[in-house]
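Re: [help] complex structure
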Amino acid sequence: MEPGDAARLGPGRAARALPPRLLLLPLLPLLLGRGLRGAAAASSSGAAAEDSSAMEELATEKEAEESHRQDSVSLLTFILLLTLTILTIWLFKHRRVRFLHETGLAMIYGLIVGVILRYGTTATSGHDKSLSCTQEDRAFSTLLVNVSGKFFEYTLKGEISPGKVNSVEQNDMLRKVTFDPEVFFNILLPPIIFHAGYSLKKRHFFRNLGSILAYAFLGTAVSCFIIGNLMYGVVKLMKIVGQLSDKFYYTDCLFFGAIISATDPVTVLAIFNELHADVDLYALLFGESVLNDAVAIVLSSSIVAYQPAGLNTHAFDAAAFFKSVGIFLGIFSGSFTMGAVTGVVTALVTKFTKLHCFPLLETALFFLMSWSTFLLAEACGFTGVVAVLFCGITQAHYTYNNLSVESRSRTKQLFEVLHFLAENFIFSYMGLALFTFQKHVFSPVFIIGAFVAIFLGRAAHIYPLSFFLNLGRRHKIGWNFQHMMMFSGLRGAMAFALAIRDTASYARQMMFTTTLLIVFFTVWIIGGGTTPMLSWLNIRVGIEEPSEEDQNEHRWQYFRVGVDPDQDLPPNNDSFQVLQGDGSDSARGNRTKQESAWLFRLWYSFDHNYLKPILTHSGPPLTTTLPAWCGLLAQCLTSPQVYENQEPLREEDSDFILTEGDLTLTFGDSAVTANGSSGSHTASMSLEGGRRMKSNSEEVLERDLGMGDPKVSSRGTRLVFPLEDNVRLPPQSPE
Amino acid sequence: MEPGDAARLGPGRAARALPPRLLLLPLLPLLLGRGLRGAAAASSSGAAAEDSSAMEELATEKEAEESHRQDSVSLLTFILLLTLTILTIWLFKHRRVRFLHETGLAMIYGLIVGVILRYGTTATSGHDKSLSCTQEDRAFSTLLVNVSGKFFEYTLKGEISPGKVNSVEQNDMLRKVTFDPEVFFNILLPPIIFHAGYSLKKRHFFRNLGSILAYAFLGTAVSCFIIGNLMYGVVKLMKIVGQLSDKFYYTDCLFFGAIISATDPVTVLAIFNELHADVDLYALLFGESVLNDAVAIVLSSSIVAYQPAGLNTHAFDAAAFFKSVGIFLGIFSGSFTMGAVTGVVTALVTKFTKLHCFPLLETALFFLMSWSTFLLAEACGFTGVVAVLFCGITQAHYTYNNLSVESRSRTKQLFEVLHFLAENFIFSYMGLALFTFQKHVFSPVFIIGAFVAIFLGRAAHIYPLSFFLNLGRRHKIGWNFQHMMMFSGLRGAMAFALAIRDTASYARQMMFTTTLLIVFFTVWIIGGGTTPMLSWLNIRVGIEEPSEEDQNEHRWQYFRVGVDPDQDLPPNNDSFQVLQGDGSDSARGNRTKQESAWLFRLWYSFDHNYLKPILTHSGPPLTTTLPAWCGLLAQCLTSPQVYENQEPLREEDSDFILTEGDLTLTFGDSAVTANGSSGSHTASMSLEGGRRMKSNSEEVLERDLGMGDPKVSSRGTRLVFPLEDNVRLPPQSPE
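Output below.
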């Protein structure tokens, strides 16, 4: 026995019988619930050693220790994979290679390691034991087994389909590198999704909110339905040809449609970011992909919940259908509420305490509250991942403004790192799974059918929806944008996580294999083709993104001056930027469509007049916006900073000034100067009182269209910017 | 069935049978190794629903879902606890309350919740089932159970002592909030320990390295031995009185000595930090507590491994003893090597790639490499926590210098947050455990004996060791320092984690209860008494700590100028600061003792001439320090930056200049100015060549003692600083 061995028999003895997931890491995921007795039981083998025969115990211990070591080795494999990926990404970024994104790279490395594990390691038998227990009619969560006088505790892992029972011999290493699918949902996806919500480019997001919601909700539903029906046709065909060896129901097809409808254009967006491509297209794609993840999760849950009442299953049942719809709405709104409520609570806590003096405490609180959203939603029976998304959006919209400068960067960076690690882990795991997953069902017909179906599904979702949206949009979504959105229908982490969640039946296994291949294909091919596609579609690149400067200005200038550069803008500001593609004539022709944004405008003024002042230090004082009889309450809720900063806040009241602020931020000027120079205008405008506040959005629009008042031209240097932009780039054709 | 319920039966169906630790969180601890079959098995219950009787399954599912929800609720409880703690800490910091530290607070909240859970919830029975399986002679890690035709998979949790088998009825909620003890070692301690290593104040740490090592190694061993023997006396007494109801061996006593010897003066150090107390005392206490954690872990492993060869156990066996010593040395050096090697590899990777252009990649790499240390050590049979400590120190010493400015703050902040959350979690869990842990053995005699023993053990460790150290130290450890160190013997997270790791036997349970009470007592009483004690012992406070400015200067001034303000200093620089207590006469009387630091000086010059140039961008070019025949290798290893920055580096070569740099940093001046002004001196000194480099340490010392050359007085404004400091504070008596 080598020294290390012997020593691990020390207090380490307790560790041996433990499942591998406990050797985790310098993180604190607070593993829970093994139970007091379990803890004691796990360690009692050490204490009992003295008075019982030690030989057999030693064998068990050795085996357990070997298992512990193998766990460490397999985790090390993943770390090595990620490290390799990071170094290669650096090399690629360093040499400006754009044809392969880091996620694609992670998959390739995963594939290689998967091949090695699959064909390079020898199969060892699992240490399993079959017991019969026919006198009971249900399984218990804990089992005490009496083995020659000693009691061992076992926990239920789950049911096994009878066919699998006899295939116990299996490569141990392959087992070790295979994760529980719930890991993706409970550990890896939440930071990815939260980060997506937290880093939504809000200005552009809210500007395109209507379209994004339409793409995400209607689009995903349409896509799911079309793919599901097409795949049902494919399955019918397979049945006729005799390629189908097991059951494959219509609901299975719809389920496939739901999981494959979650787009994840992470590759495309990374290139957009790098090339500074059009921000509105970015917002549309990013917003759609973020929200359709949530829609896909809830949709797939609802489809599985669709259980016709009668025994004649898999026929259409209106009651079950409406139940499914109800479930969809219930889960979605419940998760949304959970996320929003936690975000609002965090905003209130950070507003009314002076926690910002201690960035560490603030960051820790932020992290804990965001995490609690997930648990709260799960505890209430909603979907944690969806709740986390809306929590992220709320945190970014309100809480972020209350944080200290240091906490802002801390929280951003913390979730950025977590997101990065989790995402690359999932993609390298995907590569690995292609070879280590042992129940692949490769069906060429199904796979080809699926590729055709997702293509058609995406087309049937983008083009008609864009047409209808363009009827209502002031700034049309150009053909080139539509083609780009069509092209960017990558499938990624969410589709994979949904597919791997349940791989028990034949149909599900076939879906999983197909999903894996779709993800590979789309990430590699589409990821590599993004840059050529952008230039082919004449989508302008090289636009100055405000994000970086934004953050810097945050850091240097906005500290405690009450100005919030990240805040969303009135809906009418988009007129400055989306004048491209066929946008120019739309702006001329659709002025009457302004009212289509009435819902958003309602929300905007409510948010600006009530929510922002209540939840953050910005916005107009509540004492001015709330009715008089709420005076005391308003005074309590309004932070003193608001009164102190009343001058800049009154500036913010005016949409016009905000517009200018936006421009300033967008083009990287100094916002402070802009605010300063426009102070006089504000003062004059604020004299006209609150009534004006709602009407001047239209005024701004008119001004933008060249009918504005002389004030605008006096600030010509800024308004000229979009024109300069057009000059810099060649005029773009609609196609 | 409410909507949420029904929907979770969807893809969520797979989740139900899973153990609770999987609903973790927006983190990525890559839970591993459940095995492919487990994954499939867990979800197959969903697929099998259609063709089997659904009723009983529904019952199992409901139950599993209930369990899933309870897990979420109990994790939420902890998050609520931590949130409350954070808010109260803020209140305390805001009002400058110092009598209760955040850890003490966390314990109090934990206690309250524990009381509520213990007495406020009703006991429900655990869903356990006892099986007999007498035909086998060993336990298997996986069990397949055939329950009326369906197969369920169970995993081994561990052995249960026969006495516990019948006490299956237990409060479910209490079980849920009880964590697996290995969670502490594998998830919560690593970030705490890594952060401790990564944030060691290196200048002061290395300056006092000899004393710190002595306290940590010799001191902990002495303390362990004394406490063990005293407790053995107590146990004998208990046996005579009849208070002992089960076995309690001598090795158990020694084990108790080992676990209780790990001091954790986090409370004291927090107050030191806040009051800017003496940095050397801080370094001594912090260094000791960091290293003695590692020593205590390895020591306790070695003691458990002490198994006398013959059947006549618990008598002294020389062979077993030496085996234990060998194990101690083996584990310790192995873990040390693992940590150092990973750190060195990270340093090399960050040096030779231009990863610093992408802080996100750099941070992710740093995190992964640091985590891999833990896994590597565990995979090799060493102790992960100890390896992580030395990895942290290595990362701080080398890698930190290669990181970009953003990554420096990112990594520091990342581990700071993780450390904060983990530490407060452990302490609140401790409070909870006092009421929720169900096997407490309160033995008043043992507890009183333990308090006396730890007091005597600490005294027998601090005072004699300090006496011997003072014989060798140029700057004596004053009586007030010794008393403060004696007083600061708090026990914390490590003692708790070691004690809870094995609570199977009667002796271990008694130890656990006693440890818990010792932690409570020391954290509350000593934590509260630190400020009065500091003033009573005349330990100077209000010393300008360089840490903050240091970091800021990092951020603003040191970016890529090749100057490394965090680097350790030559051993003789301490003469500037520790002239207090009885330090002044020691400095006069012990000049002949300089050679006692020869080992450290050897290490320092090796580190400075070879390791730093190889691993970082600083230090003298290897081409000048390596022998001529290594020319090519030296050129490969030396980074171009070194040649570019040859001027400032040559400045660093000179201990004298570094001394001034230290002073400058210590007293918050602008280091750049200092370097600039001293440039001419450097130039003149560097002419004298490398020979001078080793000798001028003695010169500096002489100069400090008032015999220096005239150059020193020409820079009087800086050297006067310590005197000014003395003027500001009243002269301190040795007692």
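The longest strand of chain B covers residues 150-160.
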